Automatic annotation (TrEMBL):
Signal sequence bounds: 1-26
Keywords recorded for this protein, A-Z: Signal
Protein name as it appears in the record: Phenol degradation protein meta
Signal is among the record's keywords: yes
Organism superkingdom: Bacteria
KW Signal (keyword) present: yes
Length: 328
């Protein structure tokens, strides 16, 4: 049933482990490119050469599925999907320059549990297992200068503009069950290849309020392959992660969010899905708090967000806790 299949965007956007920011894509290819939780502060920067690792814990809930007019989708009388996930991240920055910029290679893999239902006729079900893998290659260049923080022992501030270009892909390695997907909207993997070029910028001002105000954004263009089990192809979308934050010594605090807009129709059997191609649009806002530990080459970050509006997708809340460290 189309109504039930459409609800898959609830789950895949909320909890696929290679997902980026948006719980809002087309019904059967509902992840977006990027690490779990998406990107926010410092999105255009690559660190100094070396190998870096991170652990990410996430939780999310989808509580309502909206149609193309922003109203509750009829027929889904018990939407309630909850997910818990954990992911590992590796980033390698080799010690060489390309066009005066740095190169980075990123990989993200994780596990998770998804529980819930979308109609009262089907009892809650749970699935747990490995999620889809995300990989990305990127190039970054910083055009500004580095200055000390006002706080002794804090990391230096990179004032000015940085840009970053990349190409990422979500690989359909995660657990996928078409039967449970159809009845409950519960699945861990997407069973779909996603390819996404990206462009990011970060600009940090002089110390006007504290150590400097940072504006960051990363823009992805997500293109989807065909789900071989369902013959479904999700439409292309543009996904914009963004953050405005202030550097205050070892702390960085601000507002973070994402905006997604689907630009082509979902199709099944090469025919647009009625009534509107299931074109999704969503805005989600929240906060981000980061604490640097320069002596250990580490940082801790917490982010939470909630949907402001949603069309052809789910209203969600989510949080993410990240611990990152330079390994060598």
């Amino acid at each position: 049933m189309d109504v039930v299949k459409a609800a898959l965007r609830v789950v895949l956007g909320v909890c696929c482990l290679a997902l980026g920011a948006a719980p809002s894509l087309a019904a059967e290819g509902s992840t977006v490119a990027g690490p779990i939780g998406g990107t926010d502060i410092r999105s255009a920067f690559l660190p100094t050469p070396g190998l870096y690792g991170a652990a990410i814990l996430g939780g999310a809930s989808a509580y309502q599925l909206r149609d193309g007019t922003g109203q509750t989708r009829p027929g889904l009388d018990a939407v309630g999907i909850d997910s818990k996930s954990a992911a590992g991240v590796l980033l390698y920055v080799p010690n060489f320059k390309l066009f005066d910029g740095s190169v980075g290679l990123l990989g993200v893999a994780g596990v998770g549990e998804v529980c819930g239902q979308i109609t009262s006729a089907n009892a809650e079900r749970c699935k747990s297992g490995f999620g889809d893998i995300y990989i990305e290659g990127s190039w970054s260049r910083f055009f500004g200068f580095t200055r000390p923080s006002h706080e002794k022992g804090a990391a230096p501030i990179r004032e000015g503009l940085a840009v970053r270009a990349g190409l990422g892909a979500v690989l359909p390695t995660g657990l996928y069950d078409a039967r449970i997907q159809a009845s409950n909207g519960v699945t861990v993997g997407s069973n779909t290849v996603i390819v996404a070029p990206s462009l990011a910028f970060t600009y940090t001002t002089p110390p006007l309020l504290a150590d400097g105000t940072e504006f960051s954004s990363k823009i992805y263009l997500n293109s989807y392959g065909r789900n071989s089990d369902t013959d479904y192809v999700s439409g292309k979308n543009i996904n914009i992660d963004f953050a405005v934050s202030e550097h205050i010594g070892r702390w960085q605090v601000g507002v973070a969010g994402y905006y997604l807009r689907q630009i082509t129709d979902d199709t099944r059997g090469d025919v647009a899905v009625a009534p509107d191609g299931r074109r999704a649009e969503v805005l989600s806002l929240g906060g981000v708090l980061n604490y640097d530990i320069p002596d250990l080459g580490a940082a801790i970050k917490f982010k939470a967000r909630t949907s402001v509006f949603a069309y052809n997708t789910a209203m969600t809340t989510a949080f993410y806790l990240t611990l990152a460290k330079k390994l060598y």
